[in-house]
Amino acid sequence: MLDAALTRRLRQIVGEKHYRDDPEALVAHSYDGTPMLQSLPDGVIYPADTAQVSEIMKALAEHRVPLIARGSGSNLCGGTVPVEGGVVMVMHRMNRLLEVDLENLTATVQPGMITAAFNAHVESLGLFYPPDPSSMKISTIGGNIAEGSGGLRGLKYGTTKDYVIGLEAVLASGEIIRTGGKLMKDAAGYDLTKLLVGSEGTLAIITEATLKLVPPPAAKKTMLAMYKDLYGAARTVSRIIEAKIIPATLEFMDNPTIRVVDDFAKLGLPRDMEAILLIEQDGEPETVERDIGRIRQICESERADRIEVAENREQAEKLLTARRSAFTALARIRPTTILEDATVPRSRIADMVLRINEIAGKHGVSIATFGHAGDGNLHPTATTDARDREEIHRVEQAFQEIFEAAIELGGTITGEHGVGVVKAPFLEWKVGAAGIEVMRGIKNAFDPHQLLNPGKVFAKAARKRVVIDHG
Questions:
Q1: So what's the pLDDT on residue 320?
Q2: Domain range summary for the chain, segments of one domain joined by +
Q3: Are 452 and 205 in contact (CB under 8 A)?
């Protein structure tokens, strides 16, 4: 429980009904989208503007009380779970689109705005904001920025970090800083904007963002290529890029995912295929037609069993639904679903999928794999039951070996979900001990009293590397 004087001060800042410490509010904000992870906060607060965020942080800093900033709680690495207690700051009241600047092609938005709502408004003005995380119907712009979110269009257009050009943020001391702006060039000192993107709420609280917009593509074409040979699908991915074609979307689903998605969405997917590639190209009409034709030739040369090209946007959306519903479909199978995001160079996708399957078989667990084939970001997803501790232990062992395999293949432990609590023990595998110390130095400079989202990114002890026997 917080000091009574502090809770009175917090209520004075935001108003009586916007600070809660009743059991219902505490439980509702004790977990996020990460399975098997829960910890009660001491309070929940809902600020209305940057000035309130600043005053809240000053009050908490005086009492050395931790603060966890939160959007919709769709995080998948435990990043918004208050593992060391403290106050959860929910940003949903700060949900306004402040400006769309048609002269500079920028938008200025508060962190609590839902991503899909922002996208829809921007598109209604004839503009385009490419980042499209699968959680976009519920996730917030602030959450996307904190996690450096990706999405299906990441291969061609990049991820959230490529579109954030300015930020307003509140430091642990309560001071307000502004970084970047409506600028395409800015070499004035360290790039604090890029540093804060993906920092998972451990360095500052984002209260406003300036985002780059682009003109929308004039045309789109979507196709589905189906393979009985996993390596044929993987080779197709590499050959498309080698041919200097960068699709807007290049997604992968393995056979277990295909079966589950078809059961869920009733799309008539071919259940006997080892892999499906979902490919979308956009741009000028003649370029799109040319690229889709060349992609089709590549798919055929790699012995795709079937190829379907959507005839209209309705059919295209149906195909995209197949990929976007993968996690939802898998979550229906068993009580607990653990979605990960190991990433490898795209030339190693087939190797990684086969390693995932080998590891799953070795530990006797069920893992389906889908993801962003074009940028090598795979989502091995275990369906299990948190009540079966022995099975959960085997799942954890399997994922540890999957992360190890990703590193061995030149990849990383996370491509878009972030480190949070779940990946913290493995971070040193990727960045090394010296890298961890540099990151700790940055954290200490921003937050010397460790008040912002404590217990995240930095593990108390690094996980030992496992030795994988490949036979």
A1: 80
A2: 1-216+437-456, 219-325, 330-436
A3: yes
